[in-house]
Each structure stands twice: as structure tokens, then as C-alpha cells.
Design a protein that fits this description.
The structure holds 2 protein chains of 2 kinds. By secondary structure, chain A is mainly alpha-helical. Chain A has 2 domains: 94 residues, no CATH class; 67 residues, Winged helix-like DNA-binding domain superfamily/Winged helix DNA-binding domain (Arc Repressor Mutant, subunit A, Orthogonal Bundle), CATH 1.10.10.10. Chain A is built from 8 helices and no strands. Chain A is globular. Chain B is of the alpha+beta class. Chain B has a domain of 112 residues. Chain B has 6 helices and 5 strands, in the order αααααβαββββ. In chain B, strands 1, 2, 3, 4 and 5 form a 5-stranded mixed β-sheet that branches. Classes of the chains: A mainly alpha, B alpha+beta. Chains A and B meet through helix 1, helix 2, helix 5, helix 6 and helix 8 of A and helix 4, helix 5, strand 1, strand 3 and strand 4 of B.
Chain lengths: 193, 249
């Protein structure tokens, strides 16, 4: 019988050998930062990050993923945003059903204690203010800033991930930075920074 | 030849009687145009006023400039010039690293995802593919072999055959409607009774990188006749793996 010729063996390919831990140690922080910026809570950020990673792992394992490892980062930024949008819709539906914002409120409160930036840094306090300032910015500005400054993506890559033009990405970055500068200046004037 | 005074007088009188011929229109027009051209040639052009000249040139330049879109400074350059200090300030902050529990959670999820893909993947054999044979001949051979064994245990053959009833080799298989000992294979048919998806298989040959493996279970029925013309029906299930091409998307 032909089935004797076919042996079920675990699937292996070159991606399996990649050291995910090393890759995540390098790229995980900036991706998680973006996930945090896209969601309302730390838990949501980790959930969408994990979901995006699982999808990437499945694609690379099955050979469906187009491109090499250098394409992982842009893919994950795009996927994180999609996951965040999907999660937001689910939460909105649930919130409507439950007629309560308790969970979101709890998440936002809990969010304060999750540092977005290295807390060991001498700039830890500034990081906390910056996190708050970024959260207060319109999302379309803050997401571009996070992708550009800490994700180190080009405007072309940002435009592709967010489905906007390169010029729009650049404009949003500029307006976002200006808005951020005003917010931080206000805080400086108030002696908070 | 000489003329007398009288002759000259008569000739002069005759000339006076003739009026001069009038100038033609063509001659008159030529004369008028010639005079006008001379008049024009004698007229010097009026020099442009300096202010007028300046204003004209200015208007031309302005019009030209209005048509030219001003070159925009590169956004990157503007950012560098105006927002560089803030950018530097932001870059000084490092995103918080993944904590150990989060890292372990992610790695576990990745590992699980990769294994879930592996569960549905089986590979082609590494040995070279065997020559393709018509399964019907195998089926017929197997049926004849089974029948031969059964008959051999029940009946004593009147004339033992020296030839084997069946063999695994396709070359020894009796095709349909051919006699094999006392049995004649009349016909065979096959009915699919089950099919199960076995997942994707890496295709080590040319074409699509993956194919889908499907386990197909069929019930094969063989109709044979013995030497006495009695029809015998034999059924047996057959399990096969069939590979279907996958679309690239």
C-alpha cells in the first residue's frame, strides 16, 4: 500500500532552527511598545503580540511567509495593528453587551504601573511622562512616532504597515512630534520634568 | 540726312498734338509704395523708456516664477533641523525589555504553533519514486491469489498448475479477461467509501512546494469465473494516499 511509503514525521524547516529567543530579545521590546501603544492595557498588548507571533511562526513553518527574516518586523507591525483593531472591535461589542466599562477602567488603572521604557534608566521618570504624553496624543500620531523612533522603520515601511502614503506618514510624524514637544514643554514649565 | 526748318516745325507740331500716355496703375502703385518705404526707412524707432523696460522684464520674471512651484524641503531635513533635539531625547529612552514570564509565554506559543503545523505535515519518501503501476493489475493479482489460496485449501486440483497463481510482481499479474489457471478475471470495480485529509506534504519534486495528502479507502470488487463458468465475487478494502496539488495562495 502506498501509505507505507509515506511516513508521518514532524515538520522541520530552516526556520525552526532560528533562535526565537534571541530574535525576541532584540526586537521584542520595540514591538511590545507598539502593541502597548495600540491597546488599552498591558494584558491586551501581550495578547495581540502573542497572536501576531503565532501567526508569523505558522507562516514561516509552513513556508507561506514571503521574504526572509528582515521582513518579520514590518509584518509584525502590520499584524499587531490588525490584531489591535480586531481586539478593539471585540471589546467594543462586549462593552455594549455588558453595558459597563469596568474592565477598561481597571486596565487603564493597571496600565500606569507597567513601564513602557526601561525603568532602570536615569530617564525613567521622563519615560513615564512620555508614556502619558503618547497616550494623550491622537493615535495616528503616536503610532507613527513609536514606529519611527523606537521601531526604526522608514516612512515607506510605516506607510505600508499603516496603509497610508509615505508623505502622510512623514506629516503625521512631524505633527506628532510637534504636539509631543508642546506637551513636554508644558510639563517642563510646570516643573514636572 | 538733314531736315529743313519747315520739316522740324511740322514735326514739333505733330508731337504737340499727341498727349503723353497716362501712367498705368501698376506704375503708380509701385511709385507710392516706394515712396512709403523710403518714408519708413527714414523714421527711427522710438526707444523704450527705461521704466517701461524694467517693468516689462519684471512682469515676465514674475509670471515665470509663478509657474514654477517652489522646491519643498525634504521632510526628513525639516525633522532634522527642527525636531532633532526632541528626537534625540526620545531615542535616549529604551523600550522596556520583555520580562522572563512574557518571553517564556511567547516562546511556548511559538513552539506550539510550529508543532501544530508539523502535525499536519508528512513528507514524501526520500527513496526514488517507484515505477507507476496500474493498481487494477495489483488488485486483480491479489484477488486471484486470495481465490487460489481458498480454492487450494478446499479443492484438490485435478491438474496441478506449475505456474504460480499470483505474484507481487506486476509482470506476473493476469489482466482482466485472461485466464490464470482455472480462474478467469472477468471484471473489477472500485468504490470510494471514505476519504480523510492527512494535511500538507512537502513536495520534494518540481511544481508546487506542497501537496495535500488524502487517504482514500476504496472497496474493490473482483468478478472471476472458474473453469466451470461459475461466477465468483471477491471484495476487499484498499487504502491509498492520494496527493492533490495545492494552490499557491
Amino acid at each position: 500500500m502506498n501509505s507505507k511509503e509515506v511516513t508521518a514525521i514532524p515538520f522541520t524547516n530552516q526556520n525552526t532552527a532560528l533562535d526565537w529567543r534571541t530574535w525576541l530579545q532584540t526586537n521584542g521590546p520595540k514591538l511590545l511598545l507598539f502593541a502597548r501603544q495600540q491597546t488599552r492595557s498591558e494584558q491586551d498588548a501581550e495578547d495581540i503580540f502573542q497572536e501576531a507571533l503565532v501567526k508569523l511562526a505558522k507562516k514561516t513553518s509552513s513556508g507561506e511567509f514571503q521574504g526572509g527574516q528582515e521582513a518579520w518586523l514590518p509584518y509584525l507591525y502590520t499584524q499587531l495593528r490588525r490584531e489591535a483593531i480586531d481586539l478593539g472591535r471585540k471589546k467594543d461589542r462586549r462593552a455594549k453587551r455588558e453595558q459597563t466599562v469596568f474592565e477598561d477602567k481597571k486596565n487603564l488603572e493597571g496600565n500606569i504601573h507597567d513601564p513602557w521604557f526601561e525603568s532602570t534608566s536615569a530617564l525613567a521618570e521622563q519615560g513615564q511622562y512620555l508614556k502619558e504624553a503618547l497616550q494623550e496624543l491622537p493615535e495616528k500620531f503616536s503610532e507613527v512616532i513609536v514606529m519611527k523612533v523606537w521601531g526604526e522603520l522608514t516612512f515607506a515601511e510605516i506607510g505600508e504597515a499603516l496603509d497610508i502614503s509615505l508623505n502622510t506618514a512623514a506629516s503625521r510624524y512631524r505633527y506628532g512630534l510637534e504636539a509631543l514637544r508642546k506637551k513636554l514643554s508644558t510639563q517642563r514649565d510646570a516643573g514636572e520634568l | 540726312m538733314s531736315f529743313s526748318d519747315q520739316d522740324l516745325e511740322l514735326f514739333e507740331q505733330e508731337l504737340r498734338e499727341h498727349s503723353p500716355a497716362a501712367l498705368s496703375d501698376h506704375h503708380l502703385e509701385a511709385l507710392e509704395l516706394s515712396a512709403f518705404a523710403g518714408e519708413l526707412a527714414s523714421t527711427a524707432p522710438v526707444a523704450l523708456n527705461e521704466d517701461l523696460l524694467s517693468a516689462t522684464l519684471h512682469k515676465i520674471t514674475e509670471a515665470e516664477l509663478q509657474q514654477v512651484e517652489p522646491a519643498q524641503l525634504e521632510t526628513e531635513l525639516l525633522d532634522t533641523l527642527e525636531l532633532a533635539p526632541l528626537e534625540a531625547e526620545l531615542r535616549a529612552l529604551t523600550p522596556a525589555p520583555l520580562n522572563d514570564s512574557t518571553m517564556d509565554r511567547f516562546l511556548g506559543a511559538i513552539d506550539q504553533a510550529e508543532q501544530s503545523i508539523g502535525e499536519n505535515i508528512i513528507t514524501f519518501p526520500t527513496q526514488p519514486a517507484e515505477p507507476k503501476h496500474d493498481w487494477k493489475w495489483y488488485s486483480a493479482a491479489a484477488a486471484v491469489a486470495i481465490l487460489g489460496i481458498l480454492i487450494g485449501t478446499i479443492y484438490t486440483p485435478s491438474q496441478p498448475s506449475s505456474a504460480p497463481l499470483a505474484n507481487n510482481s506486476p509482470a506476473m499479474v493476469a489482466p482482466a479477461h485472461q485466464s490464470n489457471g482455472d480462474l478467469i478475471n472477468v471484471s473489477t470495480n472500485s468504490t470510494i467509501i471514505d476519504a480523510q485529509d492527512q494535511g500538507m506534504v512537502r513536495n520534494q519534486q518540481q511544481g508546487s512546494p506542497y501537496v495535500r495528502a488524502v487517504k482514500v479507502v476504496t472497496m474493490e470488487t473482483f468478478f472471476v469465473e472458474n473453469a466451470q463458468g461459475e461466477a465468483i465475487e471477491v471484495k476487499r478494502p484498499v487504502e491509498k494516499i492520494v496527493f492533490l496539488p495545492l494552490s499557491s495562495d
